[in-house]
Amino acid sequence: MKYMLLIWNRPGFTDELSEQERTALFGDVDEIMKELTESGELIGGQALANPSQTMTVRLVDGSPELLDGPFMESKEQFAGYLAVDCDSPQRAAEIAARWPDVRYGGAMEVRPIMDEAGTEM
């Protein structure tokens, strides 16, 4: 089954870390990515640009309107994602629990990816 692991964190939180903590965090990410690549579980993934670069389209008074910024007010912002192909939801959750952003107050959302038939709905 394929899962999308959505990375949520506070923008700029790495600026608050010491150089040693940042190096450890990025080293942990590299280690997890290498492991997932070698196991064949990694499908893809990408970090996202700073939320200040975000635009949102909403329907305002019946017309689409382009707004600056993320779509919701929150201390946490969607920061990136991993797509993995795992044997179980427990394995996907295990990968998410190891993601270093979680240790620094972030969160990982684990969501199954629908197959083409959409039977997961």
Care to give the gist of this entry?
The chain has one domain: Alpha-Beta Plaits (2-Layer Sandwich), CATH 3.30.70.1060.
Model description:
With 121 residues, the protein is α+β, with helices and mostly antiparallel strands. The chain has one domain (2-112): Dimeric alpha+beta barrel (Alpha-Beta Plaits). It has helices spanning 19-39, 89-98, 100-103, and strands at 2-9, 42-47, 55-60, 63-68, 77-85, 107-112. The chain starts with a strand and ends in a 9-residue tail after the last strand.
Describe the secondary structure blueprint for this structure:
Layout lengths: L1 E8 L9 H21 L2 E6 L7 E6 L2 E6 L8 E9 L3 H10 L1 H4 L3 E6 L9
Antiparallel strand pairs: 1-5, 1-6, 2-5, 3-4
Q: Rg from C-alpha positions? A: 16 Å
Uncertain stretches of 5 or more adjacent residues: none
Q: SS-based structural class?
A: alpha+beta
Q: Tell me, what's the shape?
A: flat
The CATH homologous superfamily is termed Dimeric alpha+beta barrel
Beta percentage is 25-35%
Number of helices: 3
List keywords for this structure.
Alpha-Beta Plaits, two-stranded antiparallel ribbon, flat, alpha+beta, 29% helix, four-stranded antiparallel beta sheet, 121 residues
